[in-house]
Amino acid sequence: MSETHATVAPGAPVFPPGRYGRRREPGRRRPILPVLVAVVLLALLGLVAARLYNQYGDPDYRAEVITYTGITDSSVTVDFRVTVPEGGSATCLLRARSHDGADVGHLEATVTAPPGERHVRSRQEVPTSARPFIGEVLRCRPAG
Questions:
Q1: What is 11-23 written as a DSSP string?
Q2: How far apart are CA 109 and CA 32, in angstroms?
Q3: In whole angstroms, what is the distance from residue 116 CA to residue 40 CA?
């Protein structure tokens, strides 16, 4: 017959003393280490993201096509505006595509803003190998 203690709730298993090691005291555990590791990891990821954005992101050089005109069998004229740092210059890659979406011409154009201004408006003729349907500005980056 097993011995029952007055401190043990009815229906709870009774373990022989010292046989299974020390039992944990029930209570609230505070996960300080996992929270601390998560905070440090998020901070490191934020620093890496900021550094990569500063290195590869280029928000100061934005281009927008105003219009494309002068479509012939051998060229298209692209009128565009570029936002650069004050008095800066940019090299922009222009592309012409045919009606089926194929690239039919490319041109790199360098534009420079007047001193104290950030916007440059330019008109460039892109030579093509077939009749173009559209003229675009793919990207602009610092001139150099």
A1: TS----TTTS-PP
A2: 57
A3: 43
Question: Each residue of 26-66: pLDDT tens digit?
Answer: 666 778 888 899 999 999 999 999 988 877 776 678 899 99
* Sequence ranges of the domains in the chain: 28-57, 62-142
DSSP letters for 80-124: EEEE-STT-EEEEEEEEE-TTS-EEEEEEEEEEPPTT--EEEEEE
Tell me the C-alpha distance between 96 and 68, whole Å: 10
Reduced to 3 states (helix: H, G, I; strand: E, B; else coil), residue 3 is coil
For the whole model, what pTM was predicted? 0.60
- Does domain 62-142 match CATH 1.10.3470? no
